[in-house]
């Protein structure tokens, strides 16, 4: 299947860059390679949408009312991304290869990077940066699973996985190497590259010794867990209040 066909299938949602199989996320390497090839062969061309004029290799995604997607100007989704029915894009950006699930809100100035997979009923709050992972082709993209709430100005990169119905407070910054430390028990439990399902996570620091002295390095702290009584549409403020934390 040539690159044009693969990217068209991604645009229609008939194919995804990564899918969960038997509880594990599996990358469609061929799909990522097709996107890379698509960039290579395309030329920069002008395009116009309403009052906006663009110069790019990749056209802007075009949506019909039947798609059931709300796009608030000047939000942009690139061709080759997929927006499920019920998605709302406030002024924001969704890159090629990304998949956004039903009922998800991409809030103002949030970005969904290339190949990122965002589940159903997710809220990406204002200014969230979901990083793109296009190369190498076998690398896992950033994944935000169903029902998660990602607070304002959070940054997710390097193939981080945010588990189902997890809640990230504002300004949590996660990479593959940033420790996510569960401090809810008598001993800390450390995770890297992933946030467990239903975890409530806030920014933190921990000391590290260097030749020049002791300095605080960024980490994230799991301070609690969403309860069964907490509806997935509960606001971030309400969840954090359970743990006597402000936003």
Write structural notes for this entry.
12% of the residues lie in helices and 35% in strands. The chain has 247 residues and is mostly beta strands. The chain has a domain at 3-174: Hexapeptide repeat proteins (UDP N-Acetylglucosamine Acyltransferase, domain 1). A hairpin with a 6-residue loop joins strand 22 (179-182) and strand 23 (189-192). Helix 1 (3-12) crosses helix 2. The longest helix is centred in the N-terminal third of the chain and has 13 residues, at 29-41. 38% of the residues are buried. The mean pLDDT is 93.
Sum this structure up briefly.
This protein has 247 residues and is mainly beta. The chain has helices at 3-12, 29-41, 236-241; strands spanning 18-21, 24-27, 45-49, 52-56, 70-71, 76-77, 82-83, 88-89, 93-94, 99-100, 105-106, 111-112, 117-118, 123-124, 129-130, 143-144, 149-150, 155-156, 161-162, 167-168, 173-174, 179-182, 189-192, 194-195, 199-210, 213-225.
Distance between the termini: 48 Å
In terms of DSSP E residues, the strand content is 35-45%
Order of helices and strands: HEEHEEEEEEEEEEEEEEEEEEEEEEEEH
Strand neighbour order, sheet with most strands:
5-8-11-14-17-20-25-26-22-23
By DSSP (H or I, 4+ residues per run), the number of helices equals 3
Query: Uncertain runs with pLDDT below 50, 5 residues or more?
Result: none
CATH topology of the domain at 3-174: UDP N-Acetylglucosamine Acyltransferase, domain 1
| CATH-defined architecture of the domain at 3-174 | 3 Solenoid
What structural class results from the helix and strand content?
mainly beta
Helix share bin: 10-25%
Radius of gyration: 19 Å
Instruction: Tell me the number of strands.
Output: 26
- The CATH class of the domain at 3-174, by name, is Mainly Beta
